[in-house]
Amino acid sequence: MGKFNKDVKLLIEYLGGVENISAVTHCVTRMRFVLKNPQNTDVKSIEALPAVKETFTQAGQFQVIIGPQVSTFYNEFIAESGLTGESKDSVKEAAKQNMTVVQRVVANLSEIFSPLIPAIIVGGLLLGFRNIIGDMKLFEEGTKALVEISVFWNGVNSFLWLICEAIFHFLPVGVVWSVAKKMGANQMIGIVIGITLVSPQLLNAYAVTGAESIPYWDFGFAKVEMIGYQAQIIPAILVGFTFVYLERFAKKISPDAIQMIIVPFLSLVPTVLLAHTVLGPIGWKIGDVIATVVQTGFNSSFGWLFAGVYGFAYPILVITGLHHTLLPIDLQLIATTGGTYVWPIVALANIAQGSAVLGYIFLKRKSVEEKQIAVPACISAYLGVTEPSIFGVNLKNFYPFLAALIGSGIAGIVSMLFVATANSVGIGGLPAILSMQGNSMLPYLLCMAIAVVVPFVLTIIFSKTKLNKIAAK
Question: Residue 403: left if φ>0, alpha if ψ -120 to 50, beta else—which one?
């Protein structure tokens, strides 16, 4: 008999039986179901199961939070139910039948950027390390950085830029490829199109503002500026989707015998032409407008309040899954300004969730059962993954979640007052300090301290108030 045998049998029953399940898969902490009739689900009974931390419906899927042992639970569920486990992509596609148009757009954007996140995180950490050795004046009475006194570390600094440049300057290649992969188009052609956005033949996007003149292609009747779109996300998205739909059109009109020739030609050449005449300039402008709006909010006289609201609301976005759609804003700020002061607030929100759990652990320090759930959740949040904390402890008990929201809001305010800026998106939680720009590291340490102390203290205080009774109901 498996470890979760009883809970698995009851879960199947409470889901409305095997016949009510269209598809099932799992991720790091959650079981994900696509149900034929969601109204047949006994949610209260499911949430009362010992193995279940929380449930919610998002992106057309009924999701059951199990925690780090979800893979074991999933295997027992498959064995008991007789269902065939589906891939995450298959489940997502099935779930979209239950989604609105807006939800489908959000889901598609999230899926496009998900494969890019590991590279972006590594790049952020490397940029942070380059800041430490290249920008922080720690030697010779604070007048020189490590790279200025060491040939070896200067070489390391230069070498690491090779990786960082590949990740961030050439990010449009990854975006177009990801769109092609997501939409079922030719991925190699997608890569080629992406490269045409960042080719060395073009004027680098970072050099456009200060350029005395911009090179161009002269077609006699028209001139097209040879501008690159390094690190530009929105132009790459527009170009990617244009390629996908042109390829689909080309397949419809091309005879089968010559599709291998006609389809790549009719999808590649027009897409690249549109990229440099219409889509690129429009996408660049849209990106500038978005970055300007965000900058205006953060840089206004109420910027501190804007940051506080953002810090308070971000964990709520995590619950809905909408937080993935904020990544393009960070990337656009990085492309426009050379850094982001939005993502550091996100990392503080991660820390605040972990600190609220830490406060809960302190309160329940005599309960072995509670600590089995809370300790791994706390560690996970401090390393940037907050779902175990949010669903396993904080939201379930309410008062730690409120304490975390207030803590991340206050930390966000202080972060904006110092204009704490990161080179890039990186690992959330405590390791976020490695992604910060050199002059922001010390102020950000203060912000991190706030995100640790405030939620911890508030969790203990709230536990002695009526807020504690809300969770008990």
Answer: alpha
CA angle (292, 294, 299) in 5-degree steps? 85
Distances (CA, A) of 220 to 201, 217, 223, 270, 281: 20, 9, 7, 19, 21
* Residues recorded for the chain: 473
Q: CB burial class (10 A; 0-12, 13-18, 19+) of residue 191? A: middle
CA 443, CA 163: separation in Å to the nearest integer?
A: 28
Residue with tokens 């604070």: 142
pLDDT in tens, 86-128: 555 555 555 555 566 655 665 666 677 778 777 776 776 677 6
CA distance 431 to 350: 11
User: Which parts of the chain sit beneath pLDDT 70?
Assistant: 1, 58-59, 85-110, 121, 124-125, 128, 209, 290-291, 294, 319-328, 369, 387, 469-473
Orientation of helix 280-299 relative to helix 327-337, angle to 10°: 90
Contacts of 361 (CB under 8 A, 6+ apart): 370, 371, 374, 375, 378
Return left, alpha or beta for 397; rule: phi > 0 is left, psi -120 to 50 is alpha, else beta.
alpha
117-134 vs 151-168: helix crossing angle, rounded to 10: 150
Q: Are strands 223-225 and 216-218 parallel, antiparallel or unpaired?
A: antiparallel
Taking CA atoms, 307 is separated from 191, 296, 320, in Å, by: 37, 12, 20
Neighbours of 80 (CB within 10 A): 16
Both tokens assigned to 105 = 């757009």
Domain coordinates of the chain in residue numbers? 5-97, 169-288, 300-472
**Active site members:** 27
Considering the entire predicted model, what is its pTM? 0.62
Q: Quick one: fold of 5-97?
A: Gyrase A; domain 2 (3.30.1360)
Q: 140 in the Ramachandran plot: left (φ > 0), alpha (ψ -120 to 50) or beta? A: left
